[in-house]
Each structure stands twice: as C-alpha cells, then as structure tokens.
Design brief:
single chain, mainly alpha, 3 domains, three-stranded antiparallel beta sheet, 54% helix
C-alpha cells in the first residue's frame, strides 16, 4: 500500500511541475506570436474598455489589496455614467444598466457600437464599460507617457477585441498554430507512447481482470451498451459486478482503497470481475478476447501495481505522457477560450 501511495504522490507532484512548465511554454508562444503585430491606433479600446468588475470592486482591490493593475486602472479609466470629476473613493455605486446605456449612447458610431454589442452578447454576467481619461475631444491621447496597461494591451489571448483590431489576427494565428502544428505533434507523440506498449507483455497477475473499475453502475453500462456504446457493450459482455465494495476489497485491499482515494468526494467507484478468468489467472477466451482487453492498459497514467507487466512501460514513459497530457489540456483550454470570443 505504501509503495502504491508513494507512486501516486510522486505522480501528482510530477504532473503539477509539468503542467506549470507546459503553461509557461504556452505563454512564451503567445508572447512570441504577439511580437508580429502592433496597434493601428483605431482608439476603440481606449473609448470602450470593459470589465466584469464594478468601480466599487476595482477601488476595493486597489485600496484593500494594493492591486497594481487596479491602481493603474483607477488612474486611467473612468466608468460611463459619472461626471468628469468622478473619484473612485466616492459615489462609486453605479447602475450597470445606466453604465451600459451611456456607453452605447456615447459610442454610437458603427465600429464602437458593434464592439459594445459583441462584448455584451458574449457575457451572461454584468459587464461595466470604461473610457480613458487621457482622450481629448478628437479622441487623441494626451498622456505624457504610456501606462503598462497600454503597453501590454491586449494582455489576454481571450479578450474580446474590436473588429478591425490588428490583434484579432494574433488570436487567429494562435488558434491556427494550435490546430495545425501543436495538436498534431501532441497526438503523434501520444500515439508513439501507446505503440511503445507493444514492447511489454502481461504478467498474468489477474489484477485488471479481477478488479476492473468504473464510475458507472452495471445498469448504466448495460444501458450504454444497448445504445451502441462499443466500450460498454464489450465491458458488459465479459465483466460481472461485485456484490459490494467490501467483496472487491478482499481481492486486493490496498489497490481498491487507492483507486477509491483518487475519486472525487461525491463520486462512487464500482468494481467488476471477469467471468472468463480461470485458475492461475488464465483467460478462457484469450484468443477471442475483446479489444478492451487487448488494448489494456491503454493509458500509462493509469494506476498499476508494480507486479503488472506494463508497469515498466509506465515507468519509462511517465514523464513524456504527463508532459503531453498537460500540453493537450492547456492548449485545448485556450483554443476554446479564444474561439468563444473570436467567433
């Protein structure tokens, strides 16, 4: 049990480190691609700055938490719906409806109004609009020096940008790079890892046959099978549920407890055994066994006891497997975030 626990803890720490590295790699890529673009000074983002935070919340962050960005935001931007002498520390309770309506009214040209409508259409929660205090009557910047908020804009790959903003091409380039270069490379590496599994073989410990587990009950698996779920159909054909977890625990208590410990607090794990397993852990239908048996284990990130014949495979590829798993999670996440604001 201690060895299995140690294995799990080491993997958690490894994945945490590799996830941080993968995220840093993504941010470095984003920064590199951004250097190919520059502001065309359309001024829309200066006249229409949006935030989920109300003026009161921004003041709270600046005053109570000493947040650098909020402090700079207060210096640069004023919310729509206030007079020119507005001070964040006074009368900062502003109706979001009034704020939104005045932002539309004071930006009634086609480009700015379209931008405001786009922002509102992509948010289900309230959004506040702000404008830069340094704009003159001709929408020219009169600031003596740029703020870091201006220099770093856009500071997020998932920010909604005006239709003619040059940085929309930056967002599209990120999506194209992920879809056409990074994701195919990740899939190729994952395939290579899975193919390398063929260099190893089963030790016939019987653990996977005696203690198959699923978050689905037997009734749910049978229902999925009836609805042509290929995996569920094969699973239901060969596995039988244990009467209860205590019965399963008698087979290999440490392994069962470790699998259960990985579940979420409100998640139940169900255990099954193969009805075709004979004495000596011999499979009665080995030559005609289904793909779910032939392909097992199909993931080196699964928990395996050290006695498993594929444990050595797991040990060899674990770093690479977690690296590409982390990369896939990060790049898929940001791809969807950009897509949601881009289209």
């Amino acid at each position: 049990m201690e060895k299995l626990k140690l294995q799990l803890e080491k993997e958690k720490e490894l994945y945490r480190e590799l996830f941080i590295n993968a995220e840093k790699g993504f941010k470095d890529l984003v920064k590199k691609l951004k250097s190919n673009f520059s502001c065309i000074n359309c001024g829309v983002c200066c006249k229409v700055k949006y935030s989920k935070l109300s003026p009161d919340q921004i003041f709270g962050l600046a005053n109570e938490e000493n947040d650098k960005i909020s402090k700079e935001y207060i210096k640069l931007f004023a919310p729509y719906g206030v007079n020119k002498g507005f001070i964040y520390s006074k009368n900062n309770e502003i109706s979001v409806e009034i704020n939104n309506n005045l932002a539309k009214k004071e930006n009634n040209n086609k480009l700015s109004l379209s931008y405001i409508e786009s922002i509102l259409s992509k948010h289900t929660e309230p959004v506040y609009f702000y404008y830069c205090r340094n704009l003159d009557e001709n929408n020219q910047c009169i600031a003596k020096e740029n703020s870091f908020l201006c220099d770093n804009f856009p500071d997020s790959v998932s920010i909604i940008l005006p239709e003619n903003c040059a940085y929309k091409s930056w967002q599209k380039l990120i999506m194209d790079t992920i879809k056409n270069e990074i994701e195919p490379e990740i899939e190729l590496k994952i395939t290579e890892i899975l193919n390398y599994r063929s260099k190893f073989s089963c030790n016939r410990t019987g653990t996977c046959c005696k203690l198959a587990s699923s978050e689905f009950s037997y009734e749910e698996i049978k229902y999925k099978a009836l609805n042509n779920d290929r995996f569920a159909k094969q699973f239901a054909e060969i596995f039988t549920p244990y009467q209860d977890i205590e019965t399963a625990r008698k087979v290999f208590p440490q392994y069962v407890d470790l699998l259960i410990s990985r579940c979420a607090e409100n998640e139940k794990l169900n255990f099954y055994y193969c009805k075709h397993l004979k004495d000596g852990n011999i499979c009665a239908m080995y030559e005609s066994r289904p793909d779910i048996c032939r392909d097992f284990p199909d993931n080196p990130l699964s928990i395996m006891p050290p006695s498993c014949g594929y444990y050595a495979w797991k040990e060899e590829v674990i770093v690479a497997a977690y690296t590409f798993h982390a990369m896939k999670q990060i790049y898929d996440f940001y791809f969807e975030k950009i897509k949601n604001v881009f289209y």
